[in-house]
């Protein structure tokens, strides 16, 4: 085995795929005459590719139901309050400051799209993100409790830089579910950022939790120093349907 092939094998063992590809390319040897120059550019390529892979892995691990980018939003269709706040939220300062974002308003106004879009931006910026719906989170918490792995889940849940909890208000909880959700959201209060989307105004959250004391305490924790975005407005889906019907008649 010659030295070049031996280097390729070592790169496989050391998990350096970009450097391996660099070594395998004959043109690369011709372009970089000195060993120092060759090694430098090989390392630069490995670092760049590793960052690309890291971003992709963070997005994949975040558990997004679909890929929705902020650049895909039709901002002219967003509720006015959301459109005006979005440029600041895109800077992601709220994550650095450990603040929450609450997207509250009508169905179909872009709440989930904004939440996922901010989550993807956070992944690209190097933050660890987790997306879940409220119902999925409560079920996961109950399963963890029954399997005696709740503490392990709590430790993971606390370490995310950003947790996105979608669809608060679509289903109500029993006492166990409400208490588990309250406990885990309280774990993050003031320590890490959470985005919550809900179709219910705060004065109706008791319909979901069925406990005025718990509801008041949870609302207090979530809203403290939080960005509250008013998402009341016409539904994207209804507008799209109207446009489709109009175009179909032409």
Question: Which features characterize this protein?
Answer:
nucleotide-binding, ATP binding, 59% helix, DNAC/IstB-like, ATP-binding, 5-stranded parallel β-sheet, P-loop_NTPase, alpha/beta
- Class inferred from helices and paired strands: alpha/beta
Q: Provide the succession of SSEs.
A: HHHHHHEHEHHEHEHHEH
Total domains, how many? 2
Strand proportion: 5-15%
Q: Supply the CATH architecture of the largest domain.
A: 3-Layer(aba) Sandwich
Q: Tell me the radius of gyration.
A: 24 Å
Helix amount: 55-70%
The residue ranges in which pLDDT falls below 50 over 5 or more consecutive positions are none
Shape: globular
Assign the CATH class of the largest domain: Alpha Beta
CATH topology name of the largest domain, in short, is Rossmann fold
The CATH homologous superfamily of the largest domain is called: P-loop containing nucleotide triphosphate hydrolases
Number of strands: 5
Overall pLDDT level: 90
Measured distance between first and last alpha carbons: 71 Å
Sequence of strands across the biggest β-sheet: 2-3-4-1-5
Task: Give the biggest beta sheet.
Answer: 5 strands, parallel
InterPro entries: AAA+_ATPase, DNAC/IstB-like, IstB, IstB_ATP-bd, P-loop_NTPase
Domain AAA+ ATPase: 97-232
Family: Belongs to the IS21/IS1162 putative ATP-binding protein family.
Protein name: AAA family ATPase
Fold topology:
Blueprint: H1 3-14, H2 17-24, H3 26-31, H4 35-61, H5 80-89, H6 93-96, E1 101-105, H7 111-124, E2 129-133, H8 134-146, H9 150-159, E3 162-168, H10 175-188, E4 193-198, H11 206-209, H12 212-223, E5 227-231, H13 236-248
Parallel strand pairs: 1-4, 1-5, 2-3, 3-4
Helix pairs in contact: 1-2, 2-4, 4-7, 8-10, 10-12
Pfam families: IstB_IS21 (PF01695)
Family: Belongs to the IS21/IS1162 putative ATP-binding protein family.
GO molecular function, one term: ATP binding
């Amino acid at each position: 085995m010659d030295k070049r092939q031996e280097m390729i094998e070592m790169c496989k063992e050391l998990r350096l795929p970009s450097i391996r590809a660099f070594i395998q390319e004959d043109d690369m040897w011709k372009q970089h005459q000195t060993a120092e120059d060759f090694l430098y550019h090989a390392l630069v390529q490995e670092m760049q590719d590793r960052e690309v892979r890291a971003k992709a892995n963070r997005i994949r691990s975040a558990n997004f139901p679909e890929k929705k980018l902020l650049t895909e939003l039709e901002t002219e269709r967003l509720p006015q309050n959301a459109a005006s706040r979005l440029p600041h939220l895109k800077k992601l300062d709220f994550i650095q400051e450990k603040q929450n974002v609450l997207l509250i308003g009508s169905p179909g106004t872009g709440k989930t799209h904004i939440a996922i879009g901010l989550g993807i931006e956070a992944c690209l910026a190097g933050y660890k993100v987790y997306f879940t719906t409220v119902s999925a989170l409560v079920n996961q918490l109950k399963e963890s409790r029954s399997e005696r792995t709740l503490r392990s889940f709590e430790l993971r849940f606390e370490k995310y830089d950003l947790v996105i909890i979608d669809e608060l208000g679509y289903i109500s909880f029993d006492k166990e579910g409400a208490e588990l959700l309250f406990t885990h959201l309280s774990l993050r209060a003031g320590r890490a950022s959470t985005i919550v989307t809900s179709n219910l105004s705060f004065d109706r959250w008791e319909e979901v939790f069925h406990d005025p004391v718990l509801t008041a305490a949870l609302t207090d924790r979530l809203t403290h120093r939080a960005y509250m975005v008013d998402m009341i407005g016409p539904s994207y889906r209804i507008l799209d349907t109207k446009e489709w019907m109009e175009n179909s008649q032409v």
